[in-house]
Write a structure and sequence with these properties.
Layout: H1 4-11, H2 18-30, H3 38-49, H4 55-74, E1 78-81, H5 89-92, E2 101-106, E3 116-120, H6 127-142, E4 146-149, H7 155-164, E5 175-178, H8 192-200, E6 204-207, H9 217-230, E7 233-236, H10 245-254, E8 258-262, H11 272-279, E9 284-286, H12 289-307
Parallel strand pairs: 3-4, 3-7, 4-5, 5-6, 7-8, 8-9
Antiparallel strand pairs: 1-2, 2-6
Helix pairs in contact: 1-4, 6-7, 6-12, 9-10
Length: 309
């Protein structure tokens, strides 16, 4: 079996991502190859994908990987490999979309226990809808649900802050932030304090990116797929049609997740995605706090029943 350090090294090579790693590993399994080292995997990259790397490329990637391991050790960051026995089952289910390597800080169990609800939406959110997102997330945590979001400004912030407003106990849900950047390079800067409070409240931060890496444009879409994969349900507070929320909704549909949208004031500017998903019967509209509590209680109970079978 390939070592974790070798997987990290491969990911430091140009134009190599998780999907390529997973496809190469399938070749290894199908050929029943054993005891392969880093050099063997690099030769397979050349054979299957035409990726030709020099000795210098390999050495540079190895140095980066060693630095990543050191950064993770010094900052109490756990590294999951898709080959680990404790790799989150919710990610295993998404096949080639799963991350080959995942970095996690805090309460890793949030990826495997309880009912998870993604609370998401646009960065630009009305004050009324922000308050609704905050309150609904607070109620969700009281019901024992974990709130999953992306630590962005606006709706994500409402979800995380609502979740940590409840006194932490064994019976309440927590919150987990899926980051487009490395865990030690929080973006946006305005939410650095919020990220610390999430950890302090027994929450969790996860990322596919090494600890100190900055986010690139495509990383936001990659982050969105992980939010969808981690969650049994997705609740959209407010979103226009050109918001990144659309990516999470599409991944939610792809992964057969239940999608809920705030269904009030859908004619207002900025609520176009809510209106579209509800009208196309791709999402259930939720119009009150009472309805939210009723729906999430039902979804939570169904999830718990399946989980204990």
């Amino acid at each position: 079996m390939i070592e974790k350090i070798d997987l990290i090294t491969l990911l430091q090579l140009n134009e190599i991502g998780s999907k390529t790693i997973l496809k190469i590993y399938d070749v290894v399994k199908n050929r029943r190859l054993i005891d392969l080292d880093l050099i063997d995997y690099m030769l397979l990259l050349k054979e299957k994908f035409g990726k030709n790397y020099t000795k210098k490329d390999k050495e540079r990637a190895m140095l980066k990987a060693e630095k990543i391991l050191e950064d993770c050790y010094l900052n109490d960051i756990h590294i999951f490999s898709f080959l680990d026995d404790d790799y989150p089952e919710r990610f295993q289910k998404i096949n080639y979309d799963k991350p080959a390597i995942l970095y996690s800080k805090g309460n890793h169990k949030l990826m495997t226990v309880r009912y998870n609800l993604a609370v998401i939406g646009s960065r630009k959110v009305s004050k009324e809808n922000y308050n609704i997102g905050y309150k609904f997330s607070k109620e969700g945590v009281k019901l024992g649900a974990n709130i999953i979001s992306g630590l962005a400004l606006g709706c994500d912030t409402a979800g995380h802050r609502g979740a940590i407003s409840i006194k932490n106990s064994d019976h309440t849900g927590k919150t987990l932030a899926v980051l487009p950047s490395g865990i030690e390079n929080i973006y946006p800067n305005k939410n650095i304090d919020l990220s610390k409070k999430i950890i302090e409240n027994n929450g969790c931060l996860i990322s596919e990116k090494p600890p100190f890496e900055k986010p690139k444009k495509y990383d936001y879409i990659q982050r969105d797929r992980l939010q969808a994969a981690l969650s049994e349900g997705i609740f959209i507070i407010q979103s226009s049609l050109n918001s990144g929320t659309l990516h999470t909704a599409n991944y939610g549909i792809k992964y057969s997740k239940k999608i809920f949208c705030l269904g009030i004031n859908t004619e207002n500017k900025g609520m176009e995605l809510n209106r579209k998903l509800i009208m196309e019967n791709k999402a259930f509209g939720i119009n009150s706090e009472e309805e939210f509590i009723k729906v999430i209680t039902k979804e939570r109970d169904e999830h718990n029943e399946i989980s204990h079978q």
